[in-house]
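Moderator note: this is an archived Q&A kept for reference. The question asked for a predicted structure of one protein chain; the sequence and the answer are reproduced below.
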Amino acid sequence: MELEPSAFSSHPGEKGFMKFIHDLPVAVFRETQESRIVYCNKALAELFGFASCAELMEYSMSRFYRNEEEREVLLQAVIKSGLVMEAPVSLRRRDGRPIWCRLTARARLDERGMLEYVDGVLRDVTGEIERRGNRPTLENTANVLSDFIALLNAEGDIEDINKAGSDLLGFSAVDLVGRNIADFVVPRFRDLFSTFLSIVSKTGREEGLLTIMDRNGEEKHLEFNAFVDDRPGLFGHIHLVARDVTDRIRYHKEQLSKEKFVGVLEMAGGVAHKLNQPLMIMRNSVSEMLSGMSSKDPNYEKVLKIHQQVERISEIAKKIGNIKKYEPMDYVAGIKIVDIDKTS
């Protein structure tokens, strides 16, 4: 059953607005991160070759991308920047016929800042592309997005890179073309890069985390997807599509450090609590022994030392229970331990 505009609102004015959207001559849609179509107008259904919106909504949006990696790149760009405008996308109709469109999309986030929906508009530019006799290239597609995108040959040499990628590395695109991407991988991982190229060539794709250095030697963490191009003229070339997740990783490290500190506090409180009871018994017993001994007793000095050390342990237990910050200190064999004197 086709969803009519009235299904989305009971307010007369809103019904009229929804009908206006439904009858627009441009394709409008709302989809989830999982590619489920929540709403579309009849122009979108017609664009993909369907008789009704209800029929179209039985399919996922990713079904109409000629390359599903392209949808993932676009989705991540929308999530990261909040808005993508006039991005060229290669799609296909229900019958498999290819079409070219321009996508404008906005991310809708929930109160926690998580992606709820993507609202988008598609404009069919197939005729324009066919008249020009060419299709959008890596350069003009990638520069719409805020991701690092590069085209590599089988040896890892850069043959093309988008502006965001060249800016991230701190060089112009002209200076980067011809250089091997391994030159920018941090030294501790550089020897593994040939293994990465081998895996991509054999399996056709790979994903993971890549740590690179920019022109100033600053480390950047990229979450990447790599896949082999099998089109004539580009066979064996590798598309490297990545997002800069440096801030996210830094945030996770800070969170991990906070969690460690919370763990230290909880452990310190538990240890201090457990020590206090036996310490109280020891202190009372030793004090009672001293009060009943003469200073001339041959064991007096020994018992006095025991009393002093019990008091010292009591002070340490108090400091452990009063830890307010995480301050490490060097120990033997390169091990770090909590500096109790500086943390309480």
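Archived answer notes: Confidence is low (pLDDT under 50) at residues 1-12, 138-142.
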